């Protein structure tokens, strides 16, 4: 089969996994003949075999539907976990140091540090392509963050660095929307170890737009060589490259899997580059349209309300 992308799309019978070939969408289960391929998790939980099934599948004439008229949902319903890398781009770390009047910190590798992550909820935070995200009343400093998202396709535990990318099924785009002002608990001293509230900061309905599809990993052999851009109302805010990650995706998988078993369908958000609103300062408001683009993947768009 030609190059393809994996989607989850709305249908009269509920969400269905689909395969995008050129500008047509085909029902994944009908294409492969395997009933469990009707869901993205069903495909990912059997990824090694599913990849072969999809490669050998042949789309019958007139069985697809136009991509342009298909409602795409977040590609995975629902990941058991969304792991998000913190402070993982050198240009972003530098801009945040400047914004706070601090000297730039040394490369964490030189201090013997490993990648660190926080969590977004695996269900209510998700928003799909072209969904509207409600931000009114949640935060006065709502921020954007474009991120390359890796989708796990093979159980990973204590994975060595050189085998880490073998556990990735594919890649998609994420916006790690952040409610920055609620990340600090009021009436708690700044010096307190209990000052920060990562749940409020990073978890609210729609705080993780994801999509528009999953590009299989064989089509992106090196995730550290991808351009990425974000626009707000057609004005470029972020323009960088995944080569500026401090900890590579492979290092992140190695570190995460040393602590917890990564499951098929889990998503890893790999960090955001420079250009976030907090460094300007400038933040999202109702009516804003946010567009994200990553090389070899495509474009994800959402409107704030």
Question: What descriptive keywords fit this protein?
Answer:
305 residues, alpha+beta, Fumarylacetoacetate hydrolase, domain 2, seven-stranded mixed β-sheet, five-stranded mixed β-sheet, 18 strands, globular
Describe this structure in words.
The chain has 2 domains: 5-69, no CATH class; 82-304, Fumarylacetoacetase-like, C-terminal domain (Fumarylacetoacetate hydrolase, domain 2, Alpha-Beta Complex), CATH 3.90.850. The chain has helices at residues 28-32, 40-44, 47-56, 90-99, 198-202, 249-259, and strands spanning 5-9, 16-21, 24-27, 65-66, 82-85, 117-120, 126-127, 132-133, 142-143, 146-152, 168-175, 178-179, 208-216, 227-232, 235-241, 267-269, 289-294, 298-304. The N and C termini lie far apart (40 Å). The chain is of the alpha+beta class and 305 residues long. The model has no long low-confidence stretch (mean pLDDT 95). 43% of the residues are buried. The strands form 4 sheets. Strands 6-5-16-10-11-13-7 form a 7-stranded mixed beta sheet. Helix content is 15%, strand content 28%.
What share of the residues lie within helices? Answer: 10-25%
The CATH topology label of the largest domain is: Fumarylacetoacetate hydrolase, domain 2
CATH class of the largest domain: Alpha Beta
DSSP, total strands: 18
Strand order of the largest sheet: 6-5-16-10-11-13-7
State the major sheet.
7 strands, mixed
Q: How does CATH name the architecture of the largest domain?
A: Alpha-Beta Complex
Using the CA coordinates, give the radius of gyration: 19 Å
């Amino acid at each position: 089969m030609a190059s393809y992308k994996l989607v989850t799309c709305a249908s009269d019978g509920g969400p269905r996994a689909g395969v995008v070939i050129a500008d047509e969408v085909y029902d994944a289960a009908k294409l492969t003949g395997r009933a469990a391929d009707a869901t993205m998790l069903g495909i990912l939980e059997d990824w090694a075999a599913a990849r072969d099934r999809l490669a050998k599948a042949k789309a019958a004439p007139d069985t697809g539907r136009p991509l342009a008229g298909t409602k795409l949902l977040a590609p995975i319903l629902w990941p058991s976990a969304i792991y998000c890398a913190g402070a993982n781009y050198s240009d972003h770390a530098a801009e945040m140091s400047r914004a706070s009047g601090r000297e730039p910190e040394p490369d964490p590798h030189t201090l013997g540090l490993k990648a660190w992550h926080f969590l977004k909820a695996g269900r209510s935070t998700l928003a799909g392509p072209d969904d509207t995200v409600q931000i009114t009343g949640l935060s006065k400093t709502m921020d954007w963050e474009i991120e390359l998202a890796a989708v796990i396709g093979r159980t990973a535990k204590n994975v060595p660095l050189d085998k880490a990318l073998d556990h990735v099924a594919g890649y998609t785009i994420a916006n790690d929307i952040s409610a920055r002002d609620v990340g600090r608990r009021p009436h708690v001293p700044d010096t307190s170890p209990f000052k920060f509230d990562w749940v409020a900061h990073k978890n609210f309905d729609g705080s993780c737009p994801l999509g528009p599809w999953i590009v299989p990993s064989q089509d992106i052999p090196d995730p550290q060589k991808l351009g990425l851009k974000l626009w707000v109302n057609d004005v470029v805010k972020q323009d960088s490259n995944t080569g500026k990650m401090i900890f590579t995706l492979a290092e992140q998988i190695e570190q995460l899997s040393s602590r917890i078993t990564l499951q098929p369908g889990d998503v890893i958000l790999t960090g955001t580059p420079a250009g976030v609103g907090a460094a300007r300062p400038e933040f999202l408001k109702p009516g804003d349209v946010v567009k994200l683009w990553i090389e070899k993947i495509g474009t994800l768009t959402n409107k704030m309300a």
